[in-house]
Design brief:
Elements lengths: L5 H10 L13 H6 L1 H17 L8 E8 L10 E6 L2 H20 L17 H18 L4 E7 L3 H4 L2 H10 L4 H12 L2 E6 L2 E2 L3 E2 L11 H16 L17 E4 L2 E6 L2 H17 L10 E6 L2 E3 L5 E2 L2 E2 L8 E3 L2 E3 L6 H19 L5 H22 L4 H37 L8 E3 L4 E5 L6 E8 L5 E10 L5 E3 L1
Parallel strand pairs: 1-4
Antiparallel strand pairs: 1-2, 3-8, 3-9, 4-5, 4-6, 7-8, 9-10, 11-12, 13-14, 15-16, 16-17, 17-18, 18-19
Helix pairs in contact: 1-4, 7-8, 7-9, 9-10, 11-12, 11-13
Protein backbone atom coordinates (compact mmCIF):
# COMPACT_ATOMS: atom_id res chain seq x y z
CA UNK A 1 0.00 0.00 0.00
CA UNK A 2 1.20 3.50 -0.83
CA UNK A 3 1.55 6.29 1.71
CA UNK A 4 -1.46 8.23 2.92
CA UNK A 5 -2.44 11.02 0.56
CA UNK A 6 -3.45 14.49 1.69
CA UNK A 7 -6.74 14.25 -0.20
CA UNK A 8 -7.67 11.14 1.81
CA UNK A 9 -7.16 12.96 5.11
CA UNK A 10 -9.06 16.01 3.86
CA UNK A 11 -11.98 13.85 2.75
CA UNK A 12 -12.18 12.17 6.16
CA UNK A 13 -12.18 15.49 8.01
CA UNK A 14 -14.70 17.01 5.61
CA UNK A 15 -17.22 14.20 6.14
CA UNK A 16 -16.74 14.02 9.92
CA UNK A 17 -19.37 15.59 12.18
CA UNK A 18 -18.13 18.77 13.80
CA UNK A 19 -20.28 18.04 16.87
CA UNK A 20 -18.51 14.75 17.64
CA UNK A 21 -17.35 14.52 21.25
CA UNK A 22 -13.58 14.96 21.69
CA UNK A 23 -11.50 12.22 23.26
CA UNK A 24 -8.70 12.34 25.85
CA UNK A 25 -6.75 14.87 23.78
CA UNK A 26 -9.60 17.39 24.03
CA UNK A 27 -9.34 18.24 20.32
CA UNK A 28 -12.42 18.08 18.11
CA UNK A 29 -12.87 17.85 14.35
CA UNK A 30 -13.61 21.58 14.25
CA UNK A 31 -9.94 22.39 14.77
CA UNK A 32 -8.93 20.61 11.56
CA UNK A 33 -12.03 21.70 9.65
CA UNK A 34 -11.30 25.39 10.15
CA UNK A 35 -7.48 25.32 10.31
CA UNK A 36 -6.10 23.95 7.01
CA UNK A 37 -2.48 24.51 8.04
CA UNK A 38 -2.97 22.36 11.13
CA UNK A 39 -4.55 19.70 8.92
CA UNK A 40 -1.49 19.78 6.69
CA UNK A 41 0.75 19.38 9.75
CA UNK A 42 -1.40 16.45 10.90
CA UNK A 43 -0.94 14.78 7.53
CA UNK A 44 2.85 15.03 7.89
CA UNK A 45 2.62 13.29 11.28
CA UNK A 46 0.25 10.58 10.02
CA UNK A 47 2.65 9.73 7.20
CA UNK A 48 5.40 9.08 9.76
CA UNK A 49 3.18 6.66 11.68
CA UNK A 50 2.23 4.93 8.43
CA UNK A 51 5.86 4.44 7.38
CA UNK A 52 7.01 3.21 10.79
CA UNK A 53 4.01 0.93 11.32
CA UNK A 54 3.75 1.97 14.97
CA UNK A 55 0.88 3.62 16.84
CA UNK A 56 1.68 6.20 19.59
CA UNK A 57 0.66 5.36 23.14
CA UNK A 58 -1.53 8.48 23.32
CA UNK A 59 -3.80 6.95 20.68
CA UNK A 60 -4.19 3.68 22.58
CA UNK A 61 -6.26 5.08 25.44
CA UNK A 62 -9.99 5.75 25.59
CA UNK A 63 -12.61 7.14 27.94
CA UNK A 64 -15.59 4.78 28.10
CA UNK A 65 -19.20 5.93 28.47
CA UNK A 66 -22.03 3.57 29.42
CA UNK A 67 -24.95 3.55 26.95
CA UNK A 68 -28.15 1.59 27.84
CA UNK A 69 -29.29 -0.99 25.29
CA UNK A 70 -32.94 -0.95 26.39
CA UNK A 71 -35.35 0.91 28.63
CA UNK A 72 -35.05 0.57 32.40
CA UNK A 73 -31.55 -0.92 32.17
CA UNK A 74 -30.24 -1.91 35.60
CA UNK A 75 -27.82 -4.82 35.00
CA UNK A 76 -24.32 -4.47 33.60
CA UNK A 77 -25.09 -6.65 30.57
CA UNK A 78 -27.87 -4.22 29.60
CA UNK A 79 -25.30 -1.52 28.79
CA UNK A 80 -22.67 -1.11 26.11
CA UNK A 81 -19.53 1.00 26.23
CA UNK A 82 -18.90 3.74 23.68
CA UNK A 83 -15.25 4.79 23.62
CA UNK A 84 -14.18 8.41 23.25
CA UNK A 85 -10.93 8.33 21.26
CA UNK A 86 -8.41 10.88 20.09
CA UNK A 87 -9.62 12.63 16.95
CA UNK A 88 -6.21 12.23 15.31
CA UNK A 89 -6.44 8.45 15.71
CA UNK A 90 -9.97 8.44 14.27
CA UNK A 91 -8.80 10.41 11.23
CA UNK A 92 -5.89 8.04 10.67
CA UNK A 93 -7.90 4.84 10.99
CA UNK A 94 -10.76 6.25 8.90
CA UNK A 95 -8.35 6.55 6.00
CA UNK A 96 -7.00 3.04 6.68
CA UNK A 97 -10.55 1.65 6.94
CA UNK A 98 -11.53 3.18 3.62
CA UNK A 99 -8.50 1.61 1.96
CA UNK A 100 -9.31 -1.73 3.55
CA UNK A 101 -12.93 -1.60 2.34
CA UNK A 102 -11.78 -0.76 -1.18
CA UNK A 103 -9.33 -3.67 -1.14
CA UNK A 104 -11.97 -6.13 0.10
CA UNK A 105 -14.57 -4.93 -2.42
CA UNK A 106 -12.21 -5.08 -5.41
CA UNK A 107 -11.21 -8.65 -4.53
CA UNK A 108 -14.82 -9.68 -3.63
CA UNK A 109 -13.70 -10.94 -0.22
CA UNK A 110 -16.94 -9.74 1.41
CA UNK A 111 -20.20 -11.10 0.00
CA UNK A 112 -22.57 -8.13 0.25
CA UNK A 113 -25.57 -10.42 -0.27
CA UNK A 114 -24.70 -11.99 3.11
CA UNK A 115 -23.01 -9.26 5.17
CA UNK A 116 -24.19 -5.69 4.58
CA UNK A 117 -23.32 -3.99 7.87
CA UNK A 118 -20.16 -1.92 8.01
CA UNK A 119 -19.72 -1.69 4.23
CA UNK A 120 -19.67 1.93 3.06
CA UNK A 121 -22.16 2.78 0.33
CA UNK A 122 -24.26 -0.34 0.96
CA UNK A 123 -27.90 0.32 2.06
CA UNK A 124 -27.85 -2.85 4.11
CA UNK A 125 -30.43 -2.35 6.85
CA UNK A 126 -33.41 -1.61 4.60
CA UNK A 127 -32.40 -4.17 1.97
CA UNK A 128 -31.85 -6.87 4.60
CA UNK A 129 -35.29 -6.29 6.13
CA UNK A 130 -36.93 -6.07 2.70
CA UNK A 131 -35.58 -9.44 1.51
CA UNK A 132 -36.64 -11.22 4.72
CA UNK A 133 -40.12 -9.66 4.50
CA UNK A 134 -40.44 -10.59 0.81
CA UNK A 135 -39.55 -14.25 1.41
CA UNK A 136 -42.01 -14.54 4.31
CA UNK A 137 -44.80 -12.90 2.29
CA UNK A 138 -44.20 -15.17 -0.73
CA UNK A 139 -44.26 -18.27 1.50
CA UNK A 140 -47.55 -17.13 3.07
CA UNK A 141 -49.24 -16.22 -0.23
CA UNK A 142 -48.02 -19.32 -2.12
CA UNK A 143 -48.70 -21.62 0.87
CA UNK A 144 -45.10 -22.72 0.92
CA UNK A 145 -42.66 -23.95 3.57
CA UNK A 146 -40.11 -21.74 5.26
CA UNK A 147 -37.99 -21.93 8.42
CA UNK A 148 -36.52 -18.73 9.87
CA UNK A 149 -34.15 -18.13 12.79
CA UNK A 150 -33.26 -14.73 14.20
CA UNK A 151 -30.03 -15.24 16.16
CA UNK A 152 -28.49 -12.82 18.64
CA UNK A 153 -24.85 -12.95 19.76
CA UNK A 154 -24.15 -12.27 23.41
CA UNK A 155 -21.93 -9.20 23.82
CA UNK A 156 -20.75 -9.55 20.24
CA UNK A 157 -18.51 -6.47 20.06
CA UNK A 158 -17.00 -7.06 23.47
CA UNK A 159 -16.29 -10.78 23.07
CA UNK A 160 -14.66 -11.10 19.65
CA UNK A 161 -11.02 -12.18 20.21
CA UNK A 162 -8.13 -10.17 18.80
CA UNK A 163 -6.62 -13.39 17.47
CA UNK A 164 -9.76 -13.93 15.39
CA UNK A 165 -9.34 -10.47 13.87
CA UNK A 166 -5.71 -11.20 12.97
CA UNK A 167 -6.62 -14.62 11.58
CA UNK A 168 -9.35 -13.03 9.43
CA UNK A 169 -6.97 -10.42 8.03
CA UNK A 170 -4.41 -13.10 7.18
CA UNK A 171 -7.09 -15.33 5.66
CA UNK A 172 -8.15 -12.52 3.32
CA UNK A 173 -4.55 -11.68 2.31
CA UNK A 174 -4.62 -8.15 3.72
CA UNK A 175 -1.20 -6.48 3.16
CA UNK A 176 1.22 -6.90 6.04
CA UNK A 177 1.60 -3.14 6.62
CA UNK A 178 -2.11 -2.83 7.44
CA UNK A 179 -2.08 -6.00 9.57
CA UNK A 180 0.91 -4.80 11.58
CA UNK A 181 -0.71 -1.42 12.24
CA UNK A 182 -3.89 -3.04 13.56
CA UNK A 183 -1.95 -5.57 15.66
CA UNK A 184 0.15 -2.80 17.22
CA UNK A 185 -2.98 -0.73 17.90
CA UNK A 186 -4.69 -3.55 19.82
CA UNK A 187 -1.53 -4.81 21.55
CA UNK A 188 -1.58 -2.40 24.50
CA UNK A 189 -4.92 -0.61 24.40
CA UNK A 190 -6.13 0.77 27.74
CA UNK A 191 -9.50 2.10 28.81
CA UNK A 192 -11.37 3.43 31.80
CA UNK A 193 -15.09 4.03 32.21
CA UNK A 194 -17.08 6.66 34.09
CA UNK A 195 -20.52 6.57 35.66
CA UNK A 196 -21.71 9.68 37.43
CA UNK A 197 -18.95 10.83 39.77
CA UNK A 198 -17.12 7.47 39.77
CA UNK A 199 -14.29 6.66 37.36
CA UNK A 200 -12.60 3.28 37.20
CA UNK A 201 -8.87 2.70 36.99
CA UNK A 202 -7.13 2.04 33.69
CA UNK A 203 -7.36 -1.54 32.45
CA UNK A 204 -5.99 -3.30 29.40
CA UNK A 205 -8.43 -4.38 26.67
CA UNK A 206 -7.48 -7.98 25.85
CA UNK A 207 -10.69 -9.05 24.08
CA UNK A 208 -13.30 -7.30 21.99
CA UNK A 209 -13.11 -4.50 19.46
CA UNK A 210 -13.00 -0.83 20.41
CA UNK A 211 -16.49 0.57 19.94
CA UNK A 212 -16.22 4.08 18.60
CA UNK A 213 -13.05 3.35 16.65
CA UNK A 214 -13.45 4.04 12.94
CA UNK A 215 -11.82 0.78 11.82
CA UNK A 216 -13.50 -1.56 14.31
CA UNK A 217 -16.74 -1.79 12.30
CA UNK A 218 -14.90 -3.03 9.21
CA UNK A 219 -12.89 -5.57 11.22
CA UNK A 220 -16.01 -6.94 12.91
CA UNK A 221 -17.91 -7.21 9.62
CA UNK A 222 -15.01 -9.05 8.01
CA UNK A 223 -14.78 -11.56 10.89
CA UNK A 224 -18.55 -12.18 10.90
CA UNK A 225 -18.51 -12.62 7.12
CA UNK A 226 -15.90 -15.37 7.47
CA UNK A 227 -17.97 -17.21 10.10
CA UNK A 228 -21.26 -17.00 8.19
CA UNK A 229 -19.74 -18.03 4.86
CA UNK A 230 -18.15 -21.05 6.55
CA UNK A 231 -21.58 -22.33 7.64
CA UNK A 232 -23.32 -21.81 4.27
CA UNK A 233 -22.48 -25.22 2.73
CA UNK A 234 -24.68 -26.97 5.32
CA UNK A 235 -27.87 -26.19 3.36
CA UNK A 236 -29.18 -24.11 0.46
CA UNK A 237 -31.32 -21.04 0.96
CA UNK A 238 -34.92 -20.47 -0.21
CA UNK A 239 -35.90 -19.56 -3.75
CA UNK A 240 -37.96 -16.48 -4.62
CA UNK A 241 -40.89 -16.38 -7.05
CA UNK A 242 -38.53 -15.03 -9.71
CA UNK A 243 -36.45 -18.20 -9.39
CA UNK A 244 -33.43 -16.59 -7.73
CA UNK A 245 -31.76 -18.64 -5.00
CA UNK A 246 -31.12 -16.61 -1.85
CA UNK A 247 -28.26 -17.27 0.61
CA UNK A 248 -29.34 -19.24 3.69
CA UNK A 249 -27.64 -16.81 6.11
CA UNK A 250 -27.95 -13.04 6.13
CA UNK A 251 -26.04 -10.85 8.55
CA UNK A 252 -26.14 -7.21 9.49
CA UNK A 253 -23.20 -6.80 11.86
CA UNK A 254 -24.06 -9.24 14.71
CA UNK A 255 -27.74 -9.79 13.74
CA UNK A 256 -27.97 -13.13 11.93
CA UNK A 257 -31.02 -14.40 10.03
CA UNK A 258 -31.13 -18.04 8.88
CA UNK A 259 -33.73 -18.94 6.22
CA UNK A 260 -34.25 -22.37 4.66
CA UNK A 261 -37.15 -24.24 3.10
CA UNK A 262 -36.86 -27.25 5.43
CA UNK A 263 -36.57 -27.66 9.19
CA UNK A 264 -33.66 -30.17 9.01
CA UNK A 265 -31.69 -27.77 6.82
CA UNK A 266 -32.22 -25.01 9.36
CA UNK A 267 -31.01 -27.32 12.14
CA UNK A 268 -27.85 -28.18 10.18
CA UNK A 269 -26.98 -24.53 9.64
CA UNK A 270 -27.70 -23.73 13.30
CA UNK A 271 -25.41 -26.56 14.39
CA UNK A 272 -22.65 -25.36 12.05
CA UNK A 273 -22.96 -21.78 13.29
CA UNK A 274 -22.92 -22.94 16.90
CA UNK A 275 -19.69 -24.87 16.34
CA UNK A 276 -18.04 -21.95 14.55
CA UNK A 277 -19.08 -19.43 17.19
CA UNK A 278 -17.84 -21.73 19.95
CA UNK A 279 -14.52 -22.11 18.10
CA UNK A 280 -14.29 -18.30 18.02
CA UNK A 281 -14.90 -18.25 21.82
CA UNK A 282 -18.21 -16.46 21.39
CA UNK A 283 -21.76 -17.64 22.04
CA UNK A 284 -25.36 -17.06 21.09
CA UNK A 285 -28.05 -15.77 23.43
CA UNK A 286 -31.10 -18.08 23.14
CA UNK A 287 -33.38 -15.81 25.19
CA UNK A 288 -33.09 -13.01 22.61
CA UNK A 289 -33.19 -15.30 19.58
CA UNK A 290 -36.45 -16.29 17.84
CA UNK A 291 -37.68 -19.03 15.53
CA UNK A 292 -40.52 -19.36 13.04
CA UNK A 293 -41.69 -22.32 10.94
CA UNK A 294 -44.22 -21.99 8.11
CA UNK A 295 -46.03 -25.06 6.83
CA UNK A 296 -48.32 -24.48 3.85
CA UNK A 297 -48.23 -20.77 4.53
CA UNK A 298 -49.21 -20.98 8.21
CA UNK A 299 -47.18 -20.69 11.40
CA UNK A 300 -46.80 -23.97 13.29
CA UNK A 301 -45.32 -24.44 16.76
CA UNK A 302 -44.52 -28.15 16.81
CA UNK A 303 -40.89 -27.65 15.72
CA UNK A 304 -38.29 -26.42 18.21
CA UNK A 305 -34.69 -25.29 17.83
CA UNK A 306 -32.09 -25.44 20.60
CA UNK A 307 -28.81 -23.68 21.35
CA UNK A 308 -26.68 -25.48 23.95
CA UNK A 309 -29.73 -27.44 25.17
CA UNK A 310 -31.72 -24.21 25.58
CA UNK A 311 -34.88 -23.82 23.51
CA UNK A 312 -35.24 -20.79 21.25
CA UNK A 313 -38.62 -19.04 21.76
CA UNK A 314 -40.92 -18.87 18.74
CA UNK A 315 -42.55 -15.68 17.47
CA UNK A 316 -45.90 -17.10 18.63
CA UNK A 317 -44.62 -16.79 22.20
CA UNK A 318 -42.66 -13.54 21.81
CA UNK A 319 -42.61 -11.37 18.67
CA UNK A 320 -39.17 -10.30 17.51
CA UNK A 321 -37.99 -6.84 16.49
CA UNK A 322 -35.22 -7.18 13.94
CA UNK A 323 -33.54 -4.08 12.50
CA UNK A 324 -36.49 -1.86 13.38
CA UNK A 325 -39.28 -4.15 12.14
CA UNK A 326 -41.54 -6.34 14.28
CA UNK A 327 -42.30 -9.89 13.12
CA UNK A 328 -45.17 -11.77 14.81
CA UNK A 329 -47.24 -14.89 14.18
CA UNK A 330 -49.89 -13.00 12.16
CA UNK A 331 -47.31 -12.40 9.39
CA UNK A 332 -48.95 -9.04 8.74
CA UNK A 333 -48.12 -5.43 9.54
CA UNK A 334 -51.54 -4.43 10.89
CA UNK A 335 -50.62 -4.56 14.58
CA UNK A 336 -47.37 -2.64 14.06
CA UNK A 337 -49.12 0.06 12.01
CA UNK A 338 -51.79 0.51 14.68
CA UNK A 339 -49.09 0.72 17.33
CA UNK A 340 -47.31 3.42 15.31
CA UNK A 341 -50.52 5.49 15.06
CA UNK A 342 -51.11 5.13 18.81
CA UNK A 343 -47.54 6.19 19.57
CA UNK A 344 -47.91 9.23 17.31
CA UNK A 345 -51.02 10.36 19.21
CA UNK A 346 -49.16 9.97 22.50
CA UNK A 347 -46.17 11.95 21.25
CA UNK A 348 -48.34 14.79 19.95
CA UNK A 349 -50.25 15.02 23.24
CA UNK A 350 -47.01 15.02 25.22
CA UNK A 351 -45.60 17.86 23.12
CA UNK A 352 -48.81 19.91 23.40
CA UNK A 353 -48.87 19.50 27.19
CA UNK A 354 -45.16 20.20 27.62
CA UNK A 355 -45.61 23.97 27.87
CA UNK A 356 -42.67 24.63 25.55
CA UNK A 357 -42.63 27.72 23.31
CA UNK A 358 -43.74 27.21 19.73
CA UNK A 359 -40.30 27.16 18.16
CA UNK A 360 -39.16 24.41 20.54
CA UNK A 361 -42.27 22.39 19.74
CA UNK A 362 -41.49 22.76 16.04
CA UNK A 363 -37.96 21.49 16.71
CA UNK A 364 -39.36 18.45 18.55
CA UNK A 365 -41.72 17.74 15.65
CA UNK A 366 -38.95 17.93 13.08
CA UNK A 367 -36.12 16.14 14.90
CA UNK A 368 -38.00 13.93 17.36
CA UNK A 369 -41.33 12.82 15.93
CA UNK A 370 -40.90 12.83 12.15
CA UNK A 371 -37.82 10.51 12.08
CA UNK A 372 -39.72 8.02 14.26
CA UNK A 373 -42.63 8.07 11.81
CA UNK A 374 -40.63 7.84 8.58
CA UNK A 375 -38.94 4.53 9.41
CA UNK A 376 -42.21 2.56 9.92
CA UNK A 377 -43.44 4.00 6.62
CA UNK A 378 -40.36 2.49 4.96
CA UNK A 379 -40.40 -1.01 6.46
CA UNK A 380 -44.16 -1.63 6.75
CA UNK A 381 -46.78 -1.89 3.99
CA UNK A 382 -48.77 1.12 5.17
CA UNK A 383 -52.02 1.83 3.23
CA UNK A 384 -52.31 5.27 1.66
CA UNK A 385 -55.43 5.96 3.74
CA UNK A 386 -53.40 5.48 6.93
CA UNK A 387 -50.69 7.81 5.64
CA UNK A 388 -53.33 10.47 4.92
CA UNK A 389 -54.71 10.01 8.44
CA UNK A 390 -51.25 10.57 9.92
CA UNK A 391 -50.84 13.69 7.80
CA UNK A 392 -54.16 15.08 9.02
CA UNK A 393 -53.21 14.46 12.64
CA UNK A 394 -49.92 16.29 12.22
CA UNK A 395 -51.62 19.11 10.31
CA UNK A 396 -54.31 19.54 12.98
CA UNK A 397 -51.71 19.62 15.73
CA UNK A 398 -49.63 22.17 13.82
CA UNK A 399 -52.69 24.31 13.03
CA UNK A 400 -53.81 24.43 16.65
CA UNK A 401 -50.29 25.39 17.71
CA UNK A 402 -50.20 28.18 15.11
CA UNK A 403 -53.53 29.61 16.27
CA UNK A 404 -52.42 29.54 19.89
CA UNK A 405 -49.14 31.30 19.09
CA UNK A 406 -50.91 33.90 16.92
CA UNK A 407 -53.29 34.72 19.77
CA UNK A 408 -50.34 35.04 22.15
CA UNK A 409 -48.54 37.47 19.80
CA UNK A 410 -51.68 39.61 19.40
CA UNK A 411 -52.31 39.69 23.14
CA UNK A 412 -48.69 40.60 23.84
CA UNK A 413 -48.76 43.44 21.31
CA UNK A 414 -52.06 44.85 22.63
CA UNK A 415 -50.79 44.77 26.21
CA UNK A 416 -47.64 46.67 25.23
CA UNK A 417 -49.62 49.40 23.44
CA UNK A 418 -52.22 49.83 26.18
CA UNK A 419 -49.60 49.93 28.92
CA UNK A 420 -47.55 52.78 27.41
CA UNK A 421 -50.12 54.72 25.38
CA UNK A 422 -47.84 54.65 22.35
CA UNK A 423 -46.80 52.04 19.87
CA UNK A 424 -43.67 50.09 20.88
CA UNK A 425 -42.97 47.89 17.90
CA UNK A 426 -40.01 45.56 18.30
CA UNK A 427 -37.41 45.40 15.57
CA UNK A 428 -38.90 42.15 14.33
CA UNK A 429 -41.65 39.77 15.27
CA UNK A 430 -40.99 36.02 15.28
CA UNK A 431 -44.14 34.37 13.98
CA UNK A 432 -43.49 30.90 15.32
CA UNK A 433 -46.34 29.39 13.33
CA UNK A 434 -44.14 29.15 10.26
CA UNK A 435 -40.74 30.15 11.55
CA UNK A 436 -41.08 33.53 9.74
CA UNK A 437 -39.30 36.72 10.68
CA UNK A 438 -41.49 39.81 10.04
CA UNK A 439 -39.45 43.01 9.86
CA UNK A 440 -41.18 46.43 9.51
CA UNK A 441 -40.00 48.46 6.55
CA UNK A 442 -40.88 51.82 8.14
CA UNK A 443 -42.09 53.17 11.46
CA UNK A 444 -44.40 56.09 12.35
CA UNK A 445 -47.04 56.81 14.94
CA UNK A 446 -50.01 55.69 12.87
CA UNK A 447 -50.99 54.40 9.48
CA UNK A 448 -50.41 51.24 7.52
CA UNK A 449 -46.94 49.75 7.33
CA UNK A 450 -45.73 47.18 4.85
CA UNK A 451 -43.85 44.34 6.49
CA UNK A 452 -41.79 41.69 4.74
CA UNK A 453 -41.86 38.09 5.93
CA UNK A 454 -38.62 36.14 5.65
CA UNK A 455 -38.01 32.44 6.12
CA UNK A 456 -34.90 31.31 8.07
CA UNK A 457 -32.89 31.12 4.82
CA UNK A 458 -33.51 34.81 4.14
CA UNK A 459 -35.77 34.62 1.05
CA UNK A 460 -38.99 36.61 0.89
CA UNK A 461 -42.12 34.56 1.52
CA UNK A 462 -44.91 37.13 1.58
CA UNK A 463 -45.72 40.76 2.25
CA UNK A 464 -48.14 41.59 5.02
CA UNK A 465 -49.66 44.82 6.29
CA UNK A 466 -49.35 46.00 9.88
CA UNK A 467 -52.06 48.58 10.60
CA UNK A 468 -51.67 50.80 13.67
CA UNK A 469 -53.99 53.54 14.92
CA UNK A 470 -52.82 55.84 17.70
CA UNK A 471 -55.84 58.13 18.02
CA UNK A 472 -57.98 58.34 21.13
CA UNK A 473 -59.08 54.76 20.60
CA UNK A 474 -55.79 52.88 20.39
CA UNK A 475 -55.89 49.52 18.63
CA UNK A 476 -53.48 47.26 16.81
CA UNK A 477 -54.36 44.93 13.96
CA UNK A 478 -51.96 42.25 12.77
Amino acid sequence: MSELQLKEVREVVRKARASSAPGPSGTSYKVYKYCPKLLLRLWYILRVFWRRGRIPDQWRVAEGVWIPKEENSTQLDQFRIISLLCVEAKVFFSAVSKRLCTYLAENTYIDTSVQKGGISGMPGCLEHTGVVTQLIREARENKGNLSVLWLDLENAFGSIPHKLVQFTLTKHHVPSRCRDLIADYYSNFRMRVSSGAITSSWHKVEIGIITGCTISVTLFSLAMNMLTKSAEPECRGPRTNSGQRQPPIRAFMDDLTVMTESVPGCRWILKGLEELVEWARMRFKPAKSRSMVLRKGKVVDKFRFNIADTAIPSISEKPVKSLGKVFDCSLRDTTSIQSTCTELDGWLKSVDKSGLPGKFKAWVYQHGILPRILWPLLVYAVPISTVETLERRLACSERSREEKQRDEVKELTRSQVLASGSVQTPRFFLLESGGLQVQPVGFQDSGEYSCMAFNPQGSVNATTVLTVWTSSGISVAL
